[in-house]
Amino acid sequence: MINIFCRYLFLLPLLLTSVHGAASQEVSSAVTKSHESILQEFLVQFNKVSARGFVKTLRPVDTDVGYTLETLLEIPENNSPRGDFPGMEIKAYRDSETEFDDQDKMNLVLKEPEWLDGLTTAERNQQYGYKNSNRRQAWYLSVISRKNAANLQLVVTEQGEVLELHRNDVSILQWSLEVLEQRLQEKHAHSLFIGAESRGKGADAEFWHKTVTWCQEPSAKRLLELAASGDIIVELRRHLHPDGSAHNHGTAFRIRKHRLQTLFREQKPVRPVSDDKKQQSDPGMINYRPRRRASTAFRVGIAGCAPCLVVAKAPAAAAKRVASETDICSARAIPKAAAKASPAAVVSTASTLNGGTCSEVFPSNTTTP
């Protein structure tokens, strides 16, 4: 019996590894399912808010678009480091576009640095700061990789493992790669960015929250690369009270919106909402129909529809006629001189059977992101 036991003893580590792997896979699957479930729950609530169209701001200050959304979603105001909705961070911004294609700044995280100057907070404000309009000693500055008027700049070390803030070419504070990675993962492992069309100003501002983009898997390594390119902004926000005590609003990391796709490994638009709010859909549906292109300046026309006019860029060529073997469609290219364009523009007309007929199959109401 002992001999038999010893003979198969070597298989025990393999068996334990297999069991552990299966358990890990189940946990991972449960986590994924959990996040999808949370996203579904959020979208059900978001659909109701979006269906209301423009709503008046509930707080006429800089953070009004986010505060208004979270209030309508019945999310209590909080400073949680782990997100607003269960397991997900919500960031609202004034923009009705689903693409992050502009250089507007967006809040990312708050993270205090490791100071290297040996000064107290009050001493720092006195030495580095300035007198503001309220005659108090303040230090409110935005810092990027290029030197600002105060000779402050962000510098990524040669090893690419530390982000430093230099003053007069001397490092006064820093964040390690590990610290930033931990902060990103606890705040933005799964994040929802909400775009809102806005009109009016101040107390009369109104918002229509339209789009939702689900982002996940941020990277501190990519954060440092963005800092080096000038697309990450660190904002120092502190001042001294008249009694000499220091007040710190938190050191903020902000990112240029069009660089979010670089920071996050995955982006998924899950709610582009139609301008015509009268066309309501099932509140639990993930896939609203995205906006269709109004132009046929693409090879396949309007979202899969057969085009009647095609505008293409190509070198100038002699007029020619091309017919398919089955004579289903034919095209005739007529070159025109291009005005201030290279290569020359070629306008071609095309005739098709059932031109303008859309052949695209829309997703079902039960499709998940």
Structure description:
- The protein has seven helices and 19 strands.
- It has 369 residues and is of the alpha+beta class.
Could you give the count of β-strands? 19
By helix and strand content, what is the structural category?
Answer: alpha+beta
Query: What's the end-to-end separation, in Å?
Result: 55 Å
Helix content: 10-25%
The major sheet is characterized as: 6 strands, antiparallel
Radius of gyration over alpha carbons?
A: 28 Å
List SSEs in N-to-C order. HHEHEEEHEEEEEHEEHEEEHEEEEE
Features:
alpha+beta, 369 residues, 6-stranded antiparallel beta sheet, 5-stranded mixed beta sheet
Per-chain topology:
Blueprint: H1 2-9, H2 12-50, E1 55-56, H3 64-72, E2 89-94, E3 105-110, E4 114-115, H4 121-128, E5 130-131, E6 137-143, E7 152-156, E8 162-167, E9 170-176, H5 177-188, E10 190-199, E11 206-218, H6 220-228, E12 232-240, E13 246-248, E14 252-256, H7 260-263, E15 264-272, E16 309-313, E17 320-323, E18 330-335, E19 345-351
Parallel strand pairs: 2-10
Antiparallel strand pairs: 1-11, 3-14, 4-9, 5-6, 6-12, 7-8, 8-9, 10-11, 11-15, 12-13, 12-14, 16-19, 17-18, 18-19
